[in-house]
Amino acid sequence: MKIYADNAATTKLDIDAFEAMKPYLLEDYANPSQPYSFSRKAKRALKDARETIAECIHAEPEKIFFTSGGTESNNWAIKCFSPQKDIHYVITSAVEHHAILNTCKNSNCVHMLVPVDKYGTVKPEELIKILDRLRKSIISCESTLVSIMAANNEIGTIQSIKELAEIAHAYGAIFHTDAVQAIGHISIDVKAMRIDMLSASAHKFNGPKGIGFLYIGNELLQSFHNGGSQEFGMRAGTENVPAIVGMSVALKKNVTKIEQHTAYLNRLTELFLYTLRKANADFILNGHPKDRLPGNINISMKGKSGEGLMHLLDLKGICISTGSACDSVNQQVSHVIKAINVPVDYAEGTIRITFGKENTEQEAIEIADTLIKMIRV
Ligand code: PLP
Question: Which end of the chain is flanked by fewer CB atoms within 10 Å, N or C?
């Protein structure tokens, strides 16, 4: 038996996405930048995929830049943000993914952290406080980037992106969001939400791994690296046409079914939590009670080891996680769990179950029942 319930780490490739990729691997494999007619299909596929993706987030196609995934998109946004000043400031939340936090650490920006509340939500007044302080010392915030994730990868909390972006703009700052966990799962409209830059990664929405994109609203960035003139001269390197095609098919499919998937994943979540509660398990549900990603369950179990539970479940063929993939390696209480102040006797017993549309109701109950048996030993 194998039950996969770690869809925040990665998802299964959608079969239609896979089928759409095949011709560009085996038949129409030409380099899209070449002038001869054999390249035409690849060139066309690239254009169509860019248009489809742009449509899914209500953007213009020429503002979508293909990258190798979420990590690269975040690095690009943070490191190449190009104010005409020597110093730039980046304000992020305390619960960002390491692809943001470590990038800030390794860039020459001045990094400032906005705290979150017990649900992992960034309160608008906290962002205002930091921007006020910054404006007093540097006069204008034009060299400031505010980067707040759309939804958290560990606890699933969804942020009020539009409100936070409007605050950033009121101070003259630019707003970026790491939407890697959000895209394809909740609706995103870059215009309505006032987003200037957005990072996405295909393998989180049933697309292939190693491909993603960065939406760049208004000539806000310098080119990422040097080489050929691909991606409007902004991101050099031969485009991964099959993966880009797969990403566009997977995204379109997920976006058109968001409501249906949300209802189904909420049902799986309810079933799982109901089964645990019925057995009187002592746990805290982390993250926002309502504003959270569908299918995300992050719980802390009193007096248990999350890592131990993860390994025991693994022995039963069940794949879940202790938090983000990085923290599963570091094996310590994650910065997100610390930031939301989970009590110490619960914090180490944190596990994350993230359902996907392939999971069944039976699987949700099976994971809960197996967990109950384990915590009773
Ligand atoms: N940002 C968030 C919120 C993520 O969850 C992840 C991956 O887990 C990333 C960025 C990195 O994305 P990628 O795996 O495409 O580099």
Answer: C
